[in-house]
Amino acid sequence: MIKVENLTVRYGPTEVLKGITLEIPSNTWTCLVGPNGAGKTTFLKSLLGMNSYSGSIKIEGREIHGDMKRNIAFVPQRPEIPSGMSVTEYVALGRSKKDGWGRDAKHGREKVASVLENCQLIGLRNQFVTHLSGGEMQRVLVARALVQEPEIMLLDEPTSALDLHHQIQTLNQIEELKNDGVSIISTMHDITLGAMFAERFILMNRGTVAVDGPAQDVINSVIFKQVFENRISVHTLETGRSVVMPTRELH
Amino acid sequence: MKTEIERIWHWRSTALVTAVLLTVGLLAVSFGPVNLDFAKIVKTLLGMDGGLSSLDRTLLLEIRLPRVALAALVGAALATSGAVYQTVFRNPLADPYLLGAAAGAGLGATIAILGGQNGFHAALPLFAFLGGVLAVIATFFVSGSFYADPRSLLLSGIAVGSFATAIQTYLHQRHSAVLRTVYSWILGELTVADWDTVKWASIYIFFSLLILFSIAKKLDGLMLSDEEAYSLGIHPNRIRIIAVGAATLATATAVSASGLIGFVGIVVPHLVRGLLHRATNRALLTVSLAGAAFLVLADLGARTLLAPAELPIGVLTAFVGAPFFLFVLRARRLQP
Q1: In this predicted complex, what is the ipTM?
Q2: A136-148, pLDDT tens digit by residue?
Q3: Closest by Cα among B95, B45, B18 to B296
Q4: Which residues of chain A from 194 to 213 reach within 8 Å of chain B, CB to CB?
């Protein structure tokens, strides 16, 4: 259980997150949605415990700030791409903490090899990461998070650069991880896709939580449309799934 | 897997660079105004009676050998610092000279010399270190952020370096009695090398390099965003401070021992990167050995190219390094 109480984050004089209080149950997939500038990425990064904040974020009762013992994987939307590093070396970085910086390297190497295989990255394993396309890099980032064998995985727009095939493939892999007991928290602009995988939605707007709860309930709430300034329409399929589409005013 | 082959290639390249260093070292102790025989040198160094005259023996053991040892130490320090600065600042153009660290260290050392610390001893690198650290901090502040645009960081480094040099020049003018000694030291020279200097320099430089080697794997994390590094178990700011501190101590010691020798920190890491096709923080030992070989070779050139006159070694490294720097700058500009 992640318990957030009165979380406030400031960048200089600007309050980016304004007193957020909520609970995120363990072993679930929670998706942060909302318009640009709502504070989704800041909230996601806060859960890493690196940057300073006021209020409290507790994982299983323990404050997260500065607690480096936690194994939390982070997949950024826009990573720094280091030069001179192959895909294998880059993915293996995910083992650094788990293997005590090379002290338990054998198991780590096996894990890296199996994840590269599962992510269909074997063909790219000797490529420099600087030479990858945006989509390939995003898959490599997810692979690095998978070898980390984290207790919580934070993903910032994990499918934004992927084609449809790789979107589903990547999200399926993340779902498998969730089924193994890992808590998943992601931001996603594609709300329909998010609702296919995430059980819970947190709808954010202007640094606050507008509403949170089961994904379908959030999508079908009145406030959901209001946050997006009524520029979306929600269609419910026969399967019960919701499809969210942008609306275009005709002149 | 190919990574295994890469690992073997990595060790082979380290062995290759070590062999180059030993060969260049042997050439450097052999050639000069008086040439010494290779076989005799090797025998003497192995503790056997090599057949050298007592004068040649003194020339070898008391003049050439400490000079080559100091050149190797300084080269290793500058090259490794350059590679580490490039990783920490995520900037391929960062180097001890261009960040203002060397000029700051020079100013610190000048103040120490003018304050009565004549010659090289334990306190000089500490003054130089203080000057170097202050200069690097000033460069950060002027550039506006840690990962400033490479051009911005470079310009800030040049401005801070120029400022430090200006104060240094002013101090020289005010203390003309020691002007000549300090001036030749600024251009970079190894002529004053003796075993005492080598001893002190090796303590500081080995200490700095050991720290840098021990954090080499964590330096990988600094090539990622801070949040990614943190999630991988790296405290980015802590590693950054340790890395910059150790690299600046190595630079400061090099500057204290031999004056300002520019461009080693940019030429050598780029050459090693080109040779190994991998990030230099993954091959810091190779970078150190290559830096040592580069400066021993440069010193040999400085001693012999215009013999019997001697070129300041800083002039020679700038002669090679400045065009190389422009090449890197242009290659970077042409990148998509």
Answers
A1: 0.89
A2: 898 899 999 999 9
A3: B18
A4: none
